[in-house]
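Bumping with the actual sequence this time:
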Amino acid sequence: MLDLALVLAFILYSVSAGLRARRLASRDLGEFFLAGRTLRGWRAGASMAATQFAADTPLLVTGLVAAGGLAQLWLLWVYGLSFLLLAHVFAGPWRRAGVLTDAELVELRYGGRSSLALRICKAVYYGGVLNSAVLAMVLVGAVRFTEVFLPWHAWLPEAWFAPVLALVRGVGVEFVSTGIVAPDIASADALLSVVALLGFTALYSVTGGLRAVVTTDIAQLGVMLAGTALYAWAVLAEVGGPGGLVDALVARHGVPQATAWLSLWPGGESWAGLLVVLALPWLFQASADGTGYLAQRCMACVDESEARRAGVVFAWLQVVVRSLPWVIIALGLLVIMPPGSGLIDGAAREQTFVRGIDMLLSPGARGLMLVAMLAALASTIDTHLNWGASYWSHDVYGRLYCEVLRGRTPSGRELVWVARAANLGLLLVAFVLATRVGSIQGAWHISLLFGAGIGAVLILRWLWERINVWSEFAAITTSLVLAPILLAQHDEAQGAEWSRLAVMAAVSTTITVLVALCTPPTDAAARTEFYRRVRPPGFWARSAAAVGDDPRAPRRALARALGRVALAGLTLYLTLYGTVRLLFPLPGGTRLGAIVALMAAGALGLWSRRRP
């Protein structure tokens, strides 16, 4: 009963937030999608972190640690560099650009008729293809969770459940299950759970826009952190504390296996493979410059200073604060529910995170964790609905259909209603895709490969004035053509994922630069106006001179920004390494290295605050 009360309280709070924000959100798209540009940095950063706290991520972490130990988490932790790059290099330009969507930036950056075509292309790709794929992965995580905690077949009368089961069997809707119940019953349960979750999330995100999304995200983040901390505490109590966990790993699996799981250094990788793992995923990705909901949060901030603060808050919450409970849980579950026969199936291992909640937590604590997981699902879904709908309403409907094809300017309220309709369309597409996704890890690797093809051009368009509209077209085309070819190889050898990433990044970057050099540059007037408005750092000597600035000023600004990224990154990762190693030393090792790392992180943090 306590569990149910906590869930109902969470639902009522979220829905009321949407209703409270409805009046302001209904004015125009600036209010609906950017909250009137009134966000403070800590609120925007917390909202970013809540979105990426998605319920599928702790399941992914559990599977990654079981498959390759803590070192595998660098695949997630390394994105902290991307978040710091956003904070110190791109957040200010995004805010100064004054656009409503990242697709709109294309016309500001390049000008001309071809930029409109690219704008619509990117709106469809990000707002439709990429956004729906991410939503589908989130729904797969939801199914993993609800399969244990929402057994509708046991709760509902047979007369109510039978029509749903018949629909599943007749239409062929089949979610991937882990075998707790028969596949058709599991799919019927999943159908009811997903529909209820999507309906609840849409109720407040569609009505209240970004204001409601951010308000609920902050509360949801607090619940998620509290819930996972309580879960981690229960895991430690079960295995005898941090020291007991290390001893239990050694006792159950032996020193070599325990060391492999606890090591923070990727093992079995060549230096080239290690470089790919640590360098490519965060730099060559579909949101390398913050494109997407991260840029949306920066654009919604009060000013560029708050936008930078949002990126820093996000990086620390994402890499350090949320990671520590997940590390404890993933390692503890290797003791409590050890992999059988040396085989680790992705979907089954991911599911142990959910099974552990049911096994280890008391009713009240389980209810809090249930709310935390629902909050994690809702915070990701609401963001992707709001962000995805911005493309369809502002770029496709408003810019293309109304202004270009119909020759009229749509009203703010009209665009808001289109945005709300787009939310519902995205829900339907994501639902269909979710029935076709298996392991979260598999879907994640595919999304990384497609993103690797466009990451370079997203960064270069800010830093190098020679990049033009054809460079972006070339990068998108390369990604769409080369990714299926690389995936068709079906090479499951160790390191194959990262060799594919390296090939994609190298080919796409080369083509992007060659196209920029071999095609006419962006119109000088458009380029100069972009520089005047945005003041991007990097190689903008001609544009800077054209507006009367020192031609060397943009390069100096970039050097200072990258220095701040390097300093902030060292502080962040030394803190992470020292804390994890202090809690879980290697078998036979000492905690001296951890203490030194934490002292160095503290010194760097103090020094960075004194720097101008």
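The tokens above came from a reply further down the thread. The chain has 29 helices and no strands.
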